[in-house]
Specification:
The protein is α/β, with parallel strands linked by helices. It contains 17 helices and 14 strands. Helix 2 runs parallel beside helix 3 and helix 4 packs parallel to helix 6. The structure holds 3-methyl-2-oxobutanoic acid and zinc ion.
Length: about 525
């Protein structure tokens, strides 16, 4: 590894997936892991194997399928977690165990350990992990709020016990760039054996400083950045992979660091993570937002036509956005659809293409021009054959003075049921009909509608987040009819909730392990 190579450690599937509502299915996790591997991520943190059977299965399968990336699993600082983690990651060509404990005063209080007891635990756990594999990452959680002397002591112990990567997490997004750089610099200077390990930075974005803090840590000597696609993560999220990677690429003159990331794959994976997590990317998000390369104002457009560099510090192509793109229409054939989908990063088997083609034709019949964003929305729609619930038909009757009426036919495990319900508006009426047909006590946490393109025939994409007994599921759908899209998104969320319910039935899962209670 050259001096200025920075390793990219992606934790979308662990820290990202941990954020409430962002839960992904097993297949979705495998798909995202494959995309991360293909784009050149060095280390994929694939999950927290002790947390649930689902996490264990996903980490195991990702480890088996990994091509180039190191596959890492998270474990709290105890032997049971570490053993479970190893059982999952050991299948990888290059496995890593990541173990951690909260070292700041507030976090030390949780397991009720004295400093000496914690020091002993770190020694024992890193030694135990190191007896299983020679690739062990240690994290002193909440490092940026840990007393200097104790932080240094924990790192000294972890290195002596054999840790090969030392992670310095800013768990609550509290640090600032100067401090972030100084902390790493000082650790590297004062800790014994620092030259034999890689220092990592893991930042959260509570103050909007995660990208700046990560880059500052690299200036200070860190050579691994922990990040997620779209900055997905608990609260305000984690450092966004696309931001740190593009910053180092575009400003290589002042940040002479390299990664192995194929940046042209950024847009595709960003869209896919948004789709499977249900967390839409804000329009003005750096690098991957819908408006990141849009130039609306006259003065900008004029400048852009003369010289793109007037208002662009990077080319859209560098992050995988194709230039101008012609819309498809109802006369477009299967080959044109396949070519367009490939351009957008979707590679489909013949039977999958057939299925999408039917939905594309249906959309093109209702909408004159089908744009890239329409196709992306279409690909996000999940009408799985294995779904318990499916919308068969819906008719809504709206008058100026309510209530509105929804007549619905829903297929439940293959049998059709119908009901007419009223509500305060068509969406409310339709949701009441779903509740009448399929009794459940899930609470609606989020209902979000956005137009995919311009015009009154634009598709609406709808996200619905439901919560039931602490389990959260997000469903999405798109349709030119907003009420239909809303119902399908609700049904999609319910289907995901049912799967989650089945997985957490007694004996099926050991979910409920808290990540902070080591
Ligand atoms: O934010 C954090 O401290 C973490 C650790 C488990 C590394 O995610
Ligand atoms: Zn974190």
């Amino acid at each position: 590894m050259t001096k200025n190579r920075v390793l990219i450690f992606d934790t979308t599937l662990r820290d990202g997936e941990q954020s409430p509502g962002a839960t992904m299915t097993h297949e979705e996790k495998l798909e995202i892991a494959e995309m991360l591997d293909e784009m050149g991520v060095d280390i994929i943190e694939a999950g927290f194997p002790i947390a649930s059977e689902g996490d264990f299965r996903a980490v195991t399968e990702i480890a088996k399928r990994s091509e180039t990336a190191t596959i890492c699993g998270l474990s709290r600082a105890n032997f049971k977690d570490i053993d479970r983690c190893w059982e999952a990651v050991k299948h990888a060509k290059s496995p890593r165990i990541h173990t951690f404990i909260g070292t700041s005063p507030l976090h030390r209080d949780i397991p009720g350990l004295s400093m000496d007891q914690m020091a002993e635990r770190i020694h024992d756990c890193v030694t135990h992990a190191r007896n299983l594999t020679d690739n062990v990452q240690w994290s002193s959680m909440d490092a940026t709020r840990t007393e200097w002397d104790f932080l240094k002591r924990t790192i000294d112990i972890a290195i002596k016990a054999g840790a090969t990567t030392i992670n310095i997490p800013d768990t609550v997004g509290y640090t600032a760039p100067v401090e972030s750089a100084d902390l790493i610099r000082r650790l590297i200077k004062e800790v014994d054996g620092a030259e034999d390990v890689v220092f990592a930075t893991h930042c959260h974005n509570d103050l909007g400083l995660a990208t700046a803090n990560s880059l500052a840590a690299v200036e200070g000597g860190a050579r691994q950045i922990e990040c997620t696609i779209n900055g997905l993560g608990e609260r305000a999220g984690n450092t966004a992979l696309e931001e740190v990677v593009m910053a180092m690429k575009v400003r290589g003159d002042i940040m002479p660091f390299e990664t192995r990331i194929d940046t042209r794959r950024i847009m595709n994976i960003s869209r896919r993570v948004a789709a499977v997590s249900g967390f839409n990317v804000q329009f003005n998000k750096a690098i991957v937002g819908k408006n990141a390369f849009a130039h609306e104002s006259g003065i900008h457009q004029d400048g852009m036509l003369k010289n793109r560099e007037t208002f662009e510090v990077m080319r859209p192509e560098d992050v995988g956005l194709s230039g101008t793109s012609l819309p498809l229409g109802k006369h477009s054939g299967r080959a044109a659809l396949r070519a367009k989908l490939e351009e957008l990063g979707y590679e489909l088997a013949d039977n999958e293409l057939m299925d999408v083609f039917v939905r594309f034709k249906d959309l093109a019949d209702r909408k004159k021009e089908v744009y890239d964003d329409d196709l992306i929305a279409l690909m996000r729609v999940n009408d799985g054959d294995e779904d318990h619930l499916k919308l068969v038909s819906l008719k809504v009757i709206c008058g100026t003075h309510g209530p509105q009426t929804a007549e619905m036919v829903l297929s439940i495990d293959g049998t059709e049921h119908s009901l007419t319900e009223t509500g305060d508006g068509p969406v409310d009426a339709a949701f009441n009909a779903i509740k009448g047909l399929y009794t459940h006590c899930a609470r609606l946490q989020l209902y979000q509608v956005s137009a995919v393109t311009e015009g009154t025939d634009a598709q609406a994409t709808v996200s619905v987040r439901l919560e039931e007994d602490g389990r959260i599921a997000t469903g999405q759908s798109a349709d030119t009819d907003t009420v239909v899209a809303s119902v399908k998104a609700y049904v999609n969320a319910l289907n995901r909730l049912i799967v989650r319910r089945e997985k957490s039935a007694p004996g099926a899962d050991v979910k409920g392990v808290s990540y902070r209670d080591s």
